[in-house]
C-alpha cells in the first residue's frame, strides 16, 4: 500500500464517527461502511461514484473502469506485466497480457525508439571505435539495425509481411509443437 493511501485511510478512520458496535460482529472496524457500521452494498458505492462523476463533469464510469485505469497507468509507467497481473489478481499472466496487449505493443514501440535513439547517438558520437576490431560488429550493422527499426515503426510493416496475406488456419496457440521422437521404444514382450 502506498504512503498516500495509508494516510488517506488513517484520516478516514479518524474522521468517521462510529456507533458503538458489538465486538463479536465480523463487520466491526470497517473503514468504509454505513453510519451504523454495516458494510456498504455495491449499489451504494456505484451510486456515489456516479454522483462524483456528475459533479466532476466527467462521463459516467464504473468501479471496473477504475480498475482498468489503474492497470493502464501502471503498465504505461513501465511496471512489469507480472506485477500488474498479481496486483489485479488475475489467475494467469496471459489474462493480463490479452486484455492489455495494446499497451504492451505501445511499450514495445517505445523500446524500439529508445534502442534506435541510443544506436543513432552512439553512431554520431563515434562510440565503439575504442574496442578491438574482433569485438566490433560489421560496419553495416548499425545501418541494418536502423532498417529493422524503421520496418517495426512503419504501420505498413504488418501488411507487407509474407504471412499477413495468407489466411490463418487452425487455432492460435502459445504451445510449442511436439518434438520429433528420437527415442525408440523396445518391442513389448508378451
In a few lines, what is going on in this structure?
By secondary structure, the protein is mostly helical. It has a domain at 100-125 and 137-153. It has helices at 3-15, 42-56, 63-76, 81-88, 93-99, 101-125, 141-153, 157-160.
Listing every helix as H and every strand as E from the N terminus to the C terminus, the arrangement reads HHHHHHHH
Derived from helix and strand composition plus strand pairing, the structural class reads mainly alpha
Which shape, going by the Cα principal axes? Answer: extended
Strand content: under 5%
DSSP, total strands? 0
The CA-CA distance between the termini, in Å, is 65 Å
Using the CA coordinates, give the radius of gyration: 28 Å
Oligomer: single chain
List unreliable stretches of 5+ residues.
157-165
Tally of helical segments: 8
How would a textbook summarize the main sheet? none
Q: Specify the helix fraction band.
A: 40-55%
Rounded mean pLDDT score: 75
Give me the secondary-structure topology.
Blueprint: H1 3-15, H2 42-56, H3 63-76, H4 81-88, H5 93-99, H6 101-125, H7 141-153, H8 157-160
Describe the protein.
It is a single chain. Mean pLDDT is 75; it is low at 157-165. 3% of the residues are buried. This protein has eight helices and no strands. It has helices spanning 3-15, 42-56, 63-76, 81-88, 93-99, 101-125, 141-153, 157-160. The protein is mainly α. The chain is extended, with a radius of gyration of 28 Å. Helix 4 packs across helix 5 and helix 6 (101-125) runs antiparallel to helix 7 (141-153). The chain has a domain at 100-125 and 137-153.
